[in-house]
């Protein structure tokens, strides 16, 4: 991957590119406590005919923080700033967890610039009152010990059986999680808890939406996503995984991604 920087409100934003500069653009957006390095496990399987763009969202990786609260809408504006710098007029999106929230915000605000959207272990629903309270507790815990919060939270995203099978990969990504600055952690939590419900996009968006979920995801338990998976604009895929199928189940994930690329 080639690394670049752009500026948004005088704040440095890091992004990386891979593949054909003249190909159709695919924007990859990482989740909470991650950065663009989460995608390295898939890199050698990506079609080089596309122009892959990996963005470190504000407060993560090599991108700086913007404010005390990073709303999903402002993160979407950051993504647009990168696309404008690259002169990309239309792109497909793959957003993991929080990156899915940002993709949806982008898809609502800049629908004419979206070719397709893939929610990757994410949801179009707003936070429930219980989830908001959990985020508030997380903010307080992070302020006391950000590294412990990051380690505990990140390692809780995997299915129980994955911890032994993928010990090295999990520890590698945990080190990235614990390096997240406190401001980045808090700003993202504050932004996620106030994001609006965007399930209407699953019914009326002017583009197709792939929705990839894990059958053992500790974040979205039981049948909480069933209504989203049967929405008119959605093509759904359920994989044997927790919240992190790019580590837990690449074998079944890669054919889904190939189908997504083929649809573009």
Give a description of the structure.
GO terms for molecular function: hydrolase activity. Residues 25-126 form the AB hydrolase-1 domain. Keywords: Hydrolase. This is Alpha/beta hydrolase. This protein is an alpha/beta fold and 264 residues long. The chain has one domain (2-263): Alpha/Beta hydrolase fold, catalytic domain (Rossmann fold, 3-Layer(aba) Sandwich). 40% of the residues lie in helices and 19% in strands. It is built from 11 helices and 8 strands. The protein has helices spanning 72-85, 98-109, 129-144, 146-155, 162-165, 167-178, 182-193, 201-204, 226-229, 245-248, 250-263, and strands spanning 2-8, 11-19, 25-29, 51-55, 91-96, 114-120, 209-214, 234-239.
The CATH superfamily label reads Alpha/Beta hydrolase fold, catalytic domain
Please give the count of helices.
11
Shape: globular
Q: Name the poorly predicted regions.
A: none
Domain module count: 1
Q: What is the CA-based Rg, rounded? A: 17 Å
Structural class, from helix and strand content? Answer: alpha/beta
Secondary structure elements and pairings:
Elements: E1 2-8, E2 11-19, E3 25-29, E4 51-55, H1 72-85, E5 91-96, H2 98-109, E6 114-120, H3 129-144, H4 146-155, H5 162-165, H6 167-178, H7 182-193, H8 201-204, E7 209-214, H9 226-229, E8 234-239, H10 245-248, H11 250-263
Parallel strand pairs: 3-4, 3-5, 5-6, 6-7, 7-8
Antiparallel strand pairs: 1-2, 2-4
Helix pairs in contact: 1-2, 3-4, 3-7, 4-6
Protein name: Alpha/beta hydrolase
Domain AB hydrolase-1: 25-126
InterPro entries: AB_hydrolase_1, AB_hydrolase_fold, AB_hydrolase_sf
């Amino acid at each position: 991957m080639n690394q670049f920087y752009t500026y948004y409100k005088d704040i440095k934003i890091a992004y990386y590119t891979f593949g054909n500069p003249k190909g159709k653009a695919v924007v990859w957006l990482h989740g909470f406590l991650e950065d663009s390095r989460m995608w390295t496990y898939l890199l050698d399987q990506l079609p080089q005919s596309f122009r892959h763009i990996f963005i470190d969202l504000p407060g993560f990786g090599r991108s700086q923080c913007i404010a005390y609260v990073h709303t999903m809408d402002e993160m979407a504006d950051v993504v647009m700033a990168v696309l404008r710098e690259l002169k990309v007029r239309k792109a497909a999106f793959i957003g993991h967890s929080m990156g899915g929230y940002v993709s949806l915000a982008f898809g609502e605000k800049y629908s004419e610039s979206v070719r397709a959207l893939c929610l990757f272990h994410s949801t179009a629903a707003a936070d429930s009152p219980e989830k908001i309270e959990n985020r508030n507790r997380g903010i307080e815990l992070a302020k006391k010990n950000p590294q412990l919060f990051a380690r505990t939270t990140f390692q809780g995203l995997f299915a129980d059986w994955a911890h032994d099978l993928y010990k090295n990969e999990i520890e590698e990504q945990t080190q990235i999680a614990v390096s997240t600055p406190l401001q980045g952690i808090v700003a993202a939590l504050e932004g996620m808890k106030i994001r609006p419900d965007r399930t209407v996009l699953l019914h009326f968006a002017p583009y197709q939406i792939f929705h990839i979920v894990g059958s053992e995801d500790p974040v979205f338990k039981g049948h909480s996503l069933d209504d989203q998976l049967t929405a008119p604009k959605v093509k759904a895929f359920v994989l044997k995984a927790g919240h992190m199928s790019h580590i837990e189940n690449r074998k079944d994930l890669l054919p889904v991604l190939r189908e997504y690329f083929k649809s573009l």
